[in-house]
TrEMBL record:
Belongs to the cytidine and deoxycytidylate deaminase family. It comes from Thermodesulfobium acidiphilum. CDD domains: cytidine_deaminase (cd01283). This is Cytidine deaminase. Its EC number is 3.5.4.5. Substrate binds at residues 61-67.
């Protein structure tokens, strides 16, 4: 699989991302998983969110004994970026060493406020890597604006 080609097909011609930046993004997601606080599920997830300015924001999942208070890696990355004033996102990489970490519905709903249907999401495990457009994961997000 040519990850660079798949990501760039989704982004279109205006925002080309080169292989070295994609590799850095994936490594940032892997590194972020080391900071996961996941004593209940033992499912450590890391995320790397690539901003339009080509910087990367990391996030990891943070669990709580009250499961509803748990926050996924994807939302942590988005919330960190958003709370710093960022609003333009190019790509998201999500990593778990054992299985592909598909974003949950809550994370997808949050993302729907800020990304378009072709937003590339790179799912990574030690065994597999897959690039999926946002719209394949959440076809009909809830919205009061659209």
């Amino acid at each position: 699989m040519d990850i660079e080609k798949e990501v760039n097909l989704l982004l279109g011609s205006k925002n080309k991302i080169y292989k070295d930046l994609i590799e850095t993004l994936i490594n940032e997601a892997k590194n972020a998983s080391m900071y996961s606080y996941s004593p209940y599920s033992r499912f450590a997830v890391g995320a790397g969110l690539l901003l339009e300015n080509k910087s990367i924001v990391q996030g990891c999942n943070i669990e709580n004994s009250s499961y509803g208070s748990t926050v996924c890696a994807e939302r942590v990355a988005f919330f960190k970026a958003l709370s710093s004033g960022e609003r333009s996102f190019l790509c998201l990489a999500v990593y778990n060493k054992d299985i592909l970490p598909y974003p949950c519905g809550c994370c997808l709903q949050v993302m729907s406020e800020f990304v378009d249907s072709n937003f590339p999401i790179i799912l990574i495990s030690s065994k597999e890597i897959r690039v999926i457009p946002f719209s394949d994961l959440l076809r009909h997000p809830f919205s009061l604006h659209k």
